[in-house]
Amino acid sequence: MRIGLITPDPGHPLLAATAALLGERHEVEVLHPSAGEASVGAPADVYLLKARTPAALELARALERRGAPVVNSAAATEGCQDRTGMASLALGAGLPFAATRTFGSLALLESAAGLEWPLVVKSRRSRKDDLVARLDGPGRLRELAPRWGGEPVVTQAFAPNSGWDHKLWVVGDEVFAALRRSELAAGTGEPAPGGGRLPDGWAELALRVGRVFGLDVYGVDVIATEGGGPLIVDVNAFPGIRGQAGAPEALAALTLRRAARDRAVGR
User: Fold this and answer.
1) Which InterPro entries match (predicted)?
2) Which of 157, 176, 193 is the last residue of a domain?
């Protein structure tokens, strides 16, 4: 089989390890997102989309129009970039997602009625190094304005929790998990409580997220609220999944399954 990687960074540990596994029996080729459709001859049997730029999404759409399966699809990848749409889809499907409000700018947030502090403010458009901050009152908005004042933002009520984020990563039907100290919490040196064991039912919740969002490779950020229940605060298409034993093997197996499935239906 021919397998394409749409990425600007083929040396990323997850992709590199997956490519090494696949390359033992199959042909693996790298497409830089800026290459464009004109650089592609006959489509590969399957593509892995590890990029979120407009150019990467357009390339993925072009390949999909030509009948090539893309993991994740361009539509699903793009859907995870808009936190307003993300919240609407999740809440509409009954997922325990943080209630989210959207504002055209930080200035509009400062003058909004009905805000309850503390709250979490995030860039509406999810991307690397975007805005994610806890605000204990309106005064912090002025600190953020020089860098973030010109872009739309969303807010989520701050849910009291342990200060640890459950990072759930899904590859096909396999769930990987770890605890990470929240960037919104004070203190970073203490070890993760309980060894990072995933609470009962949370793996099934992560798989349900994939069905709702149409994702095959994705991350779900979850916090345990004071009552113990899960609260989803973010969903990411094709995250790094670094340091998770078995993740490259799961991704390689998923890649081959998708290619075989499309062959079976006569692509």
Assistant:
1) ATP-grasp, ATP-grasp_RimK-type
2) 157
pTM summary value: 0.92
pLDDT in tens, 209-233: 999 999 999 999 999 888 768 999 9
Confidence category of residue 128, pLDDT binned at 50, 70, 90: confident
Same domain, 67 and 6: yes
Task: Among 142, 157, 172, identify where a domain stops.
Answer: 157
| 152 and 181 together in one domain | no
Mean pLDDT of 159-176: 90
Provide the token pair at 120.
Answer: 């979490």
- Total structural domains in the chain? 3
Domain that holds residue 220: 164-237
Q: List pLDDT tens digits, range 177-209.
A: 998 878 776 555 454 555 557 889 999 999 999
Summarize the confidence of residues 131-140 as an average pLDDT: 90
Question: Which CATH number does the domain housing residue 9 bear?
Answer: 3.40.50
Residue 7 has pLDDT above 80, yes or no: yes
Whether residues 169 and 231 share a domain: the answer is yes
Question: Using CA atoms, how far apart are residues 222 and 231, in angstroms rounded to an integer?
Answer: 5
User: Is 258 a residue whose pLDDT tops 80?
Assistant: yes
Q: Say how far apart CA 140 and CA 138 lie, in whole Å.
A: 6
Domain annotation covers residue 185: yes
